[in-house]
Amino acid sequence: QADSRSGQLHSDMDLGDGSIKYILSGDGAGTTFTIDDSTGDIHAIKRLDREVKAQYLLKAQAWNRQTDRPLEPESEFIVKIQDINDNEPRFQDGPYQATIPEMSTIGTEVIRLTATDADDPTYGNSARVVYSILQGQPYFSVEPKTGEVRVSLAGMDREVREIYSIIIQAKDMGGQLGGLAGTTVVNITLSDVNDNPPMFDQKLYQMSVLESAPVGSVVGRIRAKDRDIGINAEMRYSIIDGDGRDTFDISTDPTNLFGIITIKKPLNFESKASYTLKIEGANTHLDHRFLDKGPFSHVTIVHVSVEDIDEPPEFSSAAYYIEVSEEAEIGTVFKTVSARDPDASNNSIRYSIEMTTDLGKYFYIDITSGALMTVLALDREELSWHNITVLAMEMNNPSMIGSVSVAVKILDVNDNPPSLTHYFEAFVCESAKAGQLIQTVTAIDPDDPLGGQHFYYSLAPEAANNPNFTLRDNQDNTAWILTRRGGWSQQDQSVYYLPIFISDGELPVQTSTSTLTIRVCSCDVEGNVMSCNAEAYHLPASLSRGALIAILACIFVMLVMILLMLSLRSHRKKPYLHDEEDNVHENIVRYDDEGGGEEDTEAFDIAAMWNPHEAHLVGKQRQDMLPEIESLSRYVPLACVGWPGSVCVGGDSNVQGYVLSKLLEADLDPCAPPYDSLQTYAYEGEGSVAESLSSLQSGCSNTDHEYDYLNDWGPRFKKLAEMYGVLETNNPPMW
């Protein structure tokens, strides 16, 4: 304690007269210890704690007060602090957590505890600790010296009690009376072991499912409960018996606790309305120490009822494949499909074809029997497959519709003749020799025989013995056209037409005749064609792009000029009637200035048409302009015009006669344009699209039409040329 006397220093030179002064220095001098400079007594001036500092190193020296000089060398000494029991034992890491398996045996170590005492273990019993349990009996005990906590009661069950809290005491002084003590808490948790078997809550489970539920659908779930937890409660479920073993399946959910019953095969209420399943649930992790508590499995019964629904009709087959010959007659029944109502009511069925699958309406199905028949002629070359969908509908419930796919393959019949692959035009050089190949021909046939195509070639009978060309069948579906002679000349004959007869190898045999056009051409020494009389002019290959553009630009300018000239010409006034090819038709009088309607009498006096003889005497003239020449009507003799059926106009105010006289004037002088022009009504005539439709003067032309150009149009127009009698009797043979 503070101010206690710790010791005394004394020098041999001290006579007790107060002439010597003691000085203290070193560890704790002046702060922890002080010295009486006259007597040399050392005192502690603050509380000492051995656990803080166990000893101090001090220095002392005797000085002469008069001379203030040391009388002897400095001396060192150590002050040791003697321990007392002032610190209780302490648990540094408390409270503690410990876990042991449930059902642990007696003596099983739970945890080892250690308490520390700050007192000096070498001095007395201040630091000797003894352990004891204050709370937790009779389940646990502690070793007094080691501090080991052990199980003292067997059969502790986690399912009964899982957590225990015990209090452990550590006391110094060997546990004797007066010793200091410290305590700590230990929380002990019992971990689970598989010591409880699973068990279903019910001996019988009732479930139901619709017969329309698809495979894989969940029917229900069951659980065998286990008082254990974790992996000790995980289950495995299986169907061990029952008439539904093949129809249903059971699996464990992701938590490994529940059994999920699913559909394994399609259900049908009409076939079987209920199923019984015997299901076993068993633990997956067994503890062999507790097998005597088993068995660790349990069995229950699951009854599954299938609920009936109104189902659509079902066809006897999932799909149909049918082969029909393309020569099948209209109305031929080629297949009968059948469907039935799977429900117990067994309603009547009506059949139809889905319209979108038979847009061409080739087929028809009998509404009651399901007989499929053709209603249009089939053509494999046009459409070789027909994929139709047949619908079956319940009479009493039209919303119940079943469908099936029907694939109809059209079988080939040899009903198409072969023909040349392309429209061939061959060339023969004037220098060609006899036996020279000039063309290889091939044929096509839209039919598709099983053994492949086989074509046979020959010249048509009318050309079989021609002296110019021959045909060689290569027996590989090709043929060669060869020359029979030499000495070809464009002047003698420039074009030959060679009819080729082609037949196929299938029954019934189909044949056709195609014509090959052969032109006689001038060739160079290498056999390249230089020119043919029917050959179009080709620009040289070396012509540049700029030159080609310039040529096209010139052509365009010329076309524009021609169109402009035609447009200007069309606006010129035509002669009145200058030849017998001009139109003769009804006419009206037109003038080119705007008039005042019915009130305009300045431009033309209608009275002149009623009295042509006096027309030139009428004083009323046009005011806007004068005619270039006077009317010619005054020169017309007043006699009957010499045309059959004409009417005399002398003194008779007949409009028809006046018009005919005006026509006669125009015929006499066609170069003088009359003041009043005669125009058409614009619906027919020379200027219209239909041209002149008048029959007048149509018989006065004795010119016959020429049809010689039909000779240049090839053999297809031969018959037409014969009809018009233009065939030349001295023409060379076509082949």
Automatic annotation (TrEMBL):
Domain Cadherin residue range list: 11-91, 92-200, 201-315, 316-420, 420-542
Sorted UniProt keywords: Calcium, Cell adhesion, Cell junction, Cell membrane, Cleavage on pair of basic residues, Glycoprotein, Membrane, Metal-binding, Repeat, Signal, Transmembrane, Transmembrane helix
One cellular component term from this protein's GO annotations in UniProt: catenin complex
Membrane-topology descriptor: Single-pass type I membrane protein
GO molecular function annotations of the record: beta-catenin binding; cadherin binding; calcium ion binding
GO biological process: adherens junction organization; calcium-dependent cell-cell adhesion via plasma membrane cell adhesion molecules; cell migration; cell morphogenesis; cell-cell adhesion mediated by cadherin; cell-cell junction assembly; homophilic cell adhesion via plasma membrane adhesion molecules; morphogenesis of an epithelium
Keyword Transmembrane included in the entry's annotation: yes
Annotated SUPFAM superfamilies: Cadherin-like
InterPro entries: Cadherin (IPR039808), Cadherin-like_dom (IPR002126), Cadherin-like_sf (IPR015919), Cadherin_CS (IPR020894), Cadherin_Y-type_LIR (IPR000233), Catenin-bd_sf (IPR027397)
Compartment annotation: Cell junction, Adherens junction; Cell membrane
Membrane-crossing residue ranges in chain numbering: 547-568
Function: Cadherins are calcium-dependent cell adhesion proteins. They preferentially interact with themselves in a homophilic manner in connecting cells; cadherins may thus contribute to the sorting of heterogeneous cell types.
Record protein name field: Cadherin-20
Organism annotation: Oncorhynchus mykiss (Rainbow trout)
Lineage: Eukaryota, Metazoa, Chordata, Craniata, Vertebrata
